Automatic annotation (TrEMBL):
Belongs to the UPF0065 (bug) family. This is Tripartite-type tricarboxylate transporter receptor subunit TctC. Coiled coil: none annotated. The lineage of its organism: Bacteria, Pseudomonadati, Pseudomonadota, Alphaproteobacteria, Hyphomicrobiales. It comes from Neorhizobium alkalisoli. Keywords: Receptor, Signal. It holds the Pfam family TctC.
Length: 312
């Protein structure tokens, strides 16, 4: 009878593999966070979570794909601060940001780094700003499209120095990094989950980190506050979502598996190497993610309206 009971329990959700949509290209920071978390959650759920990269339109195509997916618990989304900024940046979104998703929980909050191709002459942020102002018609800034974290940080940079620069959009900052390493693009503001290795290896130049304090893995890198641009302080929080209507049993199991994954030694160690930490139990909850999304939409709306950088 006990075996029967076990099998009966196991017959609940999930009964087959789950798709985790990452709304940016493979190899970028969002993909890095997603694959680490998905691998650990798979172990806890007893079903494979397969990551699917759906890039384009600064992450809004992937988010829209999940919003219109069957709410059966087998399609979920891992997205970041761009879910909040896109609500203001896009006048026409395929989904209603605050009503199209169920919330699972927060995952991690990643700092950003202002970086440049390695032969950029400037040796500090002040010098980089001077160079950008003097060459504003030719300096190129890479990002992952309007709505990306790299777009938000690039927008903060340009409004902080009151100088619009030429922006070059990619499907993710994984591909953008390839061009930065090759010197095809000049500057980028990207998450430490994608830049730490290159900065440590000297294959790109770094000028500042957007966290309030310096990072132990990049201890020589000044904060934007130290470097004179305190208004650039920003953290890229990531969350897991499911389509509205996903059964609570599925949400609860996904949330339980997320909490266990965020305590996985391998996940914590890898996050630490990349300059970030897993969210706490209290933050890895539906209520915390909902509150974060709502407060961040309100926080960034006036900043975006002042910068006037919309997608039409
Ligand atoms: C972003 O800029 O939002 C991310 O870096 C995009 C990505 O994960 O590639």
């Amino acid at each position: 009878i006990s075996l029967g009971a076990t099998v009966a329990n196991a017959a609940g959700y999930p009964e087959r593999q789950i798709t985790m949509v990452v709304p940016f290209a493979a190899g970028g920071p969002t993909d890095t966070v997603a694959r680490l978390v998905a691998e650990s959650m798979s172990k806890n759920l007893g079903q494979q979570i397969v990551v699917e990269n759906v890039g384009g339109a600064g992450g809004t195509l992937g988010a829209g794909r999940v919003a219109s997916s069957k709410p059966d618990g087998y399609t979920i989304l891992l997205h970041h601060i761009g879910m909040a900024t896109s609500a203001t940046l896009y006048r026409k979104l395929a989904y209603d940001t605050l009503n199209a998703f169920e919330y699972v929980g927060l995952v991690t909050d990643v700092p950003m780094t202002i970086v440049a191709r390695k032969d950029m002459a400037a040796t500090d942020l002040k010098g980089l700003v001077e160079y950008a102002k003097a060459n504003k018609d030719k300096v190129t800034v890479a990002n992952a499209g309007i709505g990306a974290a790299s777009h938000l940080c690039g927008m903060l940079f340009m409004s902080s120095i009151q100088t619009p620069l030429v922006t070059v959009p990619y499907k993710g900052t994984g591909p953008a990094m390839t061009d930065l390493l090759g010197g095809q693009v000049d500057i980028m503001c990207d998450q430490t989950t994608n830049t730490t290795k290159q900065i440590q290896g000297g294959t790109i130049k770094a000028y500042a980190v957007t966290s309030p304090e310096r990072l132990s893995v990049l201890k020589d890198l000044p904060t934007v506050k130290e470097a004179g641009l305190p208004q650039m302080e920003v953290g890229i929080w990531h969350g897991v979502y499911a389509p509205k209507g996903t059964p609570k049993e599925a949400i609860d199991k996904l949330d339980a598996a997320l909490k266990v994954a965020l305590k996985d030694q391998n996940v914590a160690a890898r996050f630490a190497e990349l300059g970030t930490v897993p969210s706490s139990d209290a933050d890895a909850t539906p209520a915390a993610l909902k509150a974060k999304l709502e407060s961040e939409i309100a926080r960034w709306k006036p900043v975006i309206e002042a910068a006037g950088q919309y997608a039409d």
